[in-house]
Write the structure tokens for this entry.
Amino acid sequence: MTNLLDRILAHHRARVADDPRITDSLLCAAQLSPSPRSLEAALSEPGLSVIAEVKRRSPSKGDIAPGLDPASLAAAYARGGAAAISVLTDEEFFGGSMQDLAQARQASGRPVLRKDFLLSANDVCDARLGGADAVLLIVAALSPRELKTLFGLAQELGLDCLVEAHDEDEVETALAAGARIVGVNQRDLRDFSVDRDRAARLAKLVPDGILRVAESGVSGPDDAARAAEAGYDAVLVGELLVRSEDPAAAVRELRCS
């Protein structure tokens, strides 16, 4: 039976297969675009950092905030002290776009992560061309060779990488690829269920000197505090903040945990 991750990846692989553009041309254009901001530096500040997400909908929850204004939301996140902004750019399943990313970056002044299912060199080039400062690379979506190739290309373009893992083997694969920022996603992308203990279990596998990011399953300050106690440098939070009546205050509460 096809799971959600398989469906999403099938859609994106079809898109990649239909992309007629020449990678070398995109690479040259990307290298001439404005220099990215450093996600790694932003997450290295003392205390628990918050990567606040711009997210319209998800396959598991449906519409969350379909009419959100990415600029005003990202500006509110910045007022609350978010270290960085994550923007869903997948249109088919999450209702996002690269326009959302560009608006959030301009309004926030923070490093912006392109959160999407990136599978090709053209995808990485598009991130830099679209104004992203960092990209998400999902271990479960890529072979080890593909992961290393896209990670190397991102580095060449000056983009930081949040390399996402879901289990012990994927953490090892992320580290073998050279990841300096490892995200542990507590949401299983096969069925979108959440295991709130996963981050704590996997934290010890990420060596000191590598930034740790806990993704998904943060429903309030107590969850953020548990992530900090487990050794995480940052939490990536979407639904809680998008649904909040005061996103700036919600970010501050997470940072103070």
About this structure: The CA atoms of residues 157 and 176 lie 20 Å apart.
